[in-house]
Amino acid sequence: MRTLFVGRVIASVLLFLSFNTHAQQVDIKPIPAWVTEQTPDLTATPGTHDSGSSYYLLLDRQENLAEQVYFKHQVYRILTSEGVQEMSDISATFDPSYEKLTFHKVVVYRKGQVINKLSSSAIRTMQREQSMDRYLYDGSLSAVINLQDIREGDVVEFAYSIKGYNPVFDGHYTNQVYLDYSVPSKKLHYRLLTPTSRKLQIKYGNGEVKPAMKTVGSLTEYTWTLNNNAALTTDNNLPGWYDPYRYILLSDFATWGDVAAWAEKYFRVSGAEKKQLEKRLDELFGNVGADSIVNKAIRFVQDEVRYLGFESGLNSHKPHAPLKVFDQRFGDCKDKSLLLSTILGIYGIDAHPMLVNTTLRDHVSEYLPSNTIFDHCVVQIIYLGKTFYIDPTISSQGGTIDHYHFPSYGKGLVIRAGEEELIDLPKPNESSVREEQTVEVKEVGTGAAIVTIRTTYTGDEADSQRSSFASSSRASIQKNYINFYSNLYPDIAVEDTMAIEDDREKNIFIVTETYKVPTFWKASSDNPEKFLCEVYALSLENYFSVAKSATRTAPYRLTFPLNFQQSIRVKLPESWTIQPENKSIESPYYKYTYSVSYNNLQHELMVATDYQTLQDHIPVADVPRFIEDHGVMFNNLSYQLSYDKSVTQSGSAPSKIAVIMAMAVIFMAARFARRIYYGYDPEPALPWSEGQPIGGWLVLAGIGITLAPLVLFYSLFLRSGFFEEDKWAALLNSENYAIVGLVVIEMILNAVNIIFSILIVALFYQRRTSLPRLIMIFYAFNLAITILDTCIGLTSGPDVSLRNELYANVFKSLIIAAVWIPYFNTSVRVRETFVERSNARR
Prior knowledge:
This protein is an alpha+beta fold. Strands 1, 2, 3, 5, 6, 10, 12, 14 and 15 form a 9-stranded mixed sheet that branches. Strands 27-28-26-25-32-35-34-33 form an 8-stranded mixed sheet. α6 crosses α7, α13 packs parallel to α16 (737-765) and α14 (697-719) packs antiparallel against α16 (737-765).
């Protein structure tokens, strides 16, 4: 207990000392002389449409490049209690390694009073790592003043300056200054003082706002002033590269080559350090050649050097030494990139770090050359005459040098001596997600269903899943999965352990899940005799759920690249009436196909959806069609089956028309077969032969011939559904009369084929002379019927397995015909066996 108390005391003392030490790094001084003081209109109030929790009376920002100092001055009125909560803290962030923070003014205006709120004791300085969740630590401090006794109607004014620029920039200056905000303001003022000798480029985004310019001694002064600025309301789901706000770009870099030259000197590695690193590599990799070192080096840097960065001061843009990163086994993106390129260079492979912007991507070329525009570092590798790109921060990546996934970064600047321009980067290798759901229904109307979900990930999707499974336990992932599916099936439960298959070389990652849904069927609310079940493409819901806007003025962000294939197979215990559906939507930005098919032989329903994005955004002019198309896609996410006990218990009556038609066909076919039996009686092929018994290969043919009538009878009357009333009703309701006609023809041919097969059996065992020619016709006739069956089956848009089954049937019939037709046509044994003639002829 005493130890705990002492620990708390020590912690409190350390915290106090920390605050006190940091507070000494913050000064309180009057506003500098170089600043042009702006007087706010303390009486200003927002317009009706601009009122919120607060209102800015002044947004004042001034910079003096000669003195390397930045001045910030703001005045705002608090309008509501929410404004009191939101605006009662004043915060300034600085890097103590090269910046000095000075507060100049903190006052509150209340009913004619001017209340000073600035004192050393009021300033609390603490370390807040904003990027800690991304394993990045920049060493910056935040000085916070918590204003006490703030009320509605108060006007708060504060001003501070930060002196010192990061020495890593070598005196260069780049900036992006916004002229629009999401909140309204009475006055916006931006003033820039720069040495007249400095060549400063200026570029505007979303409209030019010309500054007032004048010379002040050896300085050039630029001043931008805007009054009565309305809040800019933006649309949602904007592409990351799209910026609707007006802004000013400032840079003293003339070209991208100047930026590359600036970066190159910070990414140099001495020969001595390379030799030390080479010794470490010999111990790590052994005696390996260039052909295998590439993949080994990439895997080492990606997987064994963890992503962690300390980016204060110079190291915000300068990487740590590769040897240090190798030994400590951690680094940020630039550290890992320099380490990888250095390792490969030691083995004689041309490799260089490259700067990219993961948000702007290829739009980075629309900005001025700048050393602060980039937010990430990767590696360019030139190997065996080919150029490859690797992101060393992606852990658990699969594939090989030829097939590593490289994200869609658009453009990059290679850090190499003599590099002059941004280069175009390749589009990512294809990635995909294929989710196959199988729902096995044991009983209709009641009982549980077993749901098996097999998801195959490739490319970037496989990398993401592999990393996720490496960083989380199977139990937590399984829990997240089941929570996801419970949105559709609240009582879903795990039936079998999740299975993982990982082929890292081919970069294929497969997850198989098995669940049990106890109440798959639910009684209808308006009819207790009617039961419903639903399958739903839950994984596609986020992609098809589109935010609607009547007055959208900006492009709509798409998840890109995306290639998602989803199928739901429902195995039913009995036959069902299901109307086939097919839907296809194509645009320059996305592709979508949807199909519903039913395999009557297997009693399987298949709902398949494929969705692919082709661009990263929808232009504003095409958003209405995008919303309409995705509304159609969203409506197709769900598929319901219904089961009415009152109808089912009464039985599904056979189709009288189909039965009568079949009986009529069979009767006429039997009469025609009788005429053939007695009327077609050719001379023996070998008149002198006394006849041979059925033997040799004819025994094998005889087995198939004997079983043929039984198989054909089963297929026609018991399996095909030709005589089910509901099947004919569904066909007629589809109004596809071409298909109806083909089905009628198919039924007639199958009925004829039954009689034909019986005739063949009789002639075969009587060894009649008419058998060889008639059996060749029989085999050809069966092949024709099989082809017709396949054509009709393909019109319903079957899934892959059923389509393969149909093709297999054609192939089987083709083989049978190809074997037995030539045999019965040319075999001597056939001629010697089938020599008997009709009794009537005798």
